[in-house]
Specification:
mainly alpha, elongated, 55% helix, 207 residues, 0% strand
Length: 207
């Protein structure tokens, strides 16, 4: 048919109407998933214009597969702003950063689209030292995090980053302290306020 010929040879303008015609109703729910699961010739053509194409994804695009989310994170030409706009809509949450481009890790933390684990928090700090990005994520998930003891290789660095100043709210600080297994050196807690210092001393966390 004429439609098959036009799509096979990429003789079409990339706009919402044409994409909906090619991929059907599912395009409104999982736009990028449709593209990467569909005809490879069409996908190759669209990928050449992917930055503009992502802007065509509708607000109802909320059911992207984890594979599609990870794949889009690897598109270097796509700005962080555009990727985060896409990411905020999604219902799926990445379990970890194994398939994600490492430079996009902060975007997943900012948009709250990765599972809250100490391992994922550690991965963030391996690529970004902006604690102001991480603090809201930890506050939002501290109850889940509080039930998990850190692995030994994750422990000391995160303890110094998170527990040696007054950035975390007091209730969050108190809930998370038992997750850490190292004692504080006196010099490490010299900047703690009176309430946090009391919590540390009562928990016998000072050598």
């Amino acid at each position: 048919t004429l439609f098959d010929y036009v799509t096979k040879h990429s003789y079409f303008e990339i706009n919402y109407k044409n994409l909906k015609l090619i991929y059907g109703e599912d395009f409104d729910k999982c736009s990028y998933t449709c593209i990467i699961k569909g005809d490879k010739n069409i996908e190759e053509y669209i990928q050449l214009h992917i930055v503009d194409t992502v802007d065509l994804f509708p607000e109802t695009d909320k059911e992207e597969s984890l594979e599609a989310i990870a794949n889009l994170s690897k598109v270097i030409s796509l700005s962080d702003e555009s990727f985060e706009k896409f990411l905020r809509r999604q219902n799926n949450i990445m379990p970890d950063f194994e398939q994600v481009r490492k430079e996009r890790i902060p975007s997943f933390i900012k948009t709250d689209k990765v599972k809250a684990t100490w391992t994922n928090i550690k991965k963030f700090f391996e690529v970004d030292d902006d604690i102001d990005v991480m603090i809201p994520f930890i506050i939002g998930h501290y109850i889940d995090l509080a039930g998990t003891k850190l692995d030994e290789d994750e422990d000391k660095k995160l303890q110094k980053l998170l527990m040696c100043d007054n950035t975390l709210p007091l209730d969050v600080y108190q809930a998370l302290l038992p997750c850490f297994g190292y004692y504080f050196e006196p010099d490490e807690i010299k900047n703690l306020d009176e309430e946090r210092l009391r919590i540390v001393m009562e928990a016998d966390y000072v050598e």
